[in-house]
């Protein structure tokens, strides 16, 4: 069975811990792992724009001995002249892994169903699991663990980052509190899945409209843009709705004394976060961005190893 990483719960708690251990080892010894030696090619396809994901995958694939093939929005037949299924079968003949940033999660599922190589979600409308691995690595570096810590996410609590924090954070044994306005809280199936995972790891999940309730004593305060790729705010209504959920010094004061600030970036200073917080001493956003390389090298290597092991045992 080929293993894929389409959403955070594709990894069990033990598997996620293994991937994070691997990421720490890879960061300490950057060129020691060569699963793409050859070089083997890796497809990195973007239906939406990117800075961090593009550079971190290209860098990580090169570190692993491979050769990235970057496809920018609109540059291939995928989606308009050729189906996802046909594209998946073709790419499986050529590349060692398929990394794809797209809109609908169902597209990633179709890609994986038809692929004989690992497929990795590089952000969809629903999830951003690679970002969460990088964030968990950063949290481990800072606190030495993830279990028992509390993360408070403020803002668009129905977007891809919120969903992935709920699922990936629960998998890591973290208490995940998300706060956003009515109409922008997580879907019930996401909360159910997060609570199911949290029950296995001893974590708790909370979704609320109340900022203070979410952030009280938190170890990590995190936010994301109020307008994700593919969304717009022509009337300014979203900005009005989300304004009370801005992360500023008053919010950080309500968190724990050692609390850090995280943001997947790109950030909009003066909107979801103030400049004094993101550029202040509690912020770990640059370390977090750099950790994309190491976390993604780990998940690529782990998926390659697991898929090969499963093929041998068949
Ligand atoms: N955080 C993140 O995924 O950034 P990019 O959109 O620049 O890839
Ligand atoms: N929620 C954001 C994350 C960007 C990395 C978006 O989807 O645009």
How would you describe this structure to a colleague?
The protein is α/β, with parallel strands linked by helices. Helices cover 44% and strands 13% of the residues. The protein is built from 12 helices and 9 strands. The strands form 2 sheets. It has a 5-stranded parallel β-sheet. Strands 2-1-3-4 form a 4-stranded parallel β-sheet, sandwiched between helices. β1, α2 and β2 (67-71) form a beta-alpha-beta unit. α2 packs across α12 (285-313). The radius of gyration is 19 Å and the shape is globular. The model has no long low-confidence stretch (mean pLDDT 97). Norvaline (NVA) binds at residues 123, 128, 159-161, 224-225, 228-229, 264.
By secondary-structure content and strand pairing, the structural class works out as: alpha/beta
> How many helices does DSSP assign?
12
State the order of secondary-structure elements, H for helix, E for strand. Answer: HEHEHEHEHEHEHEHEHHEHH
What number is the mean pLDDT? 97
Query: In this structure, how is the largest beta sheet organized?
Result: 5 strands, parallel
Oligomer: single chain
Report low-confidence residues grouped into runs of 5 or more: none
Q: How many extended strands?
A: 9
Amount of beta strand:
5-15%
Ligands and ions found: phosphoric acid mono(formamide)ester, norvaline
Side-by-side strand order of the widest sheet: 7-6-5-8-9
What general outline do the C-alpha atoms trace?
globular
* Portion of residues within helices: 40-55%
Gyration radius (Cα, Å) is: 19 Å
> Between the first and last Cα atoms, what is the distance in angstroms?
8 Å
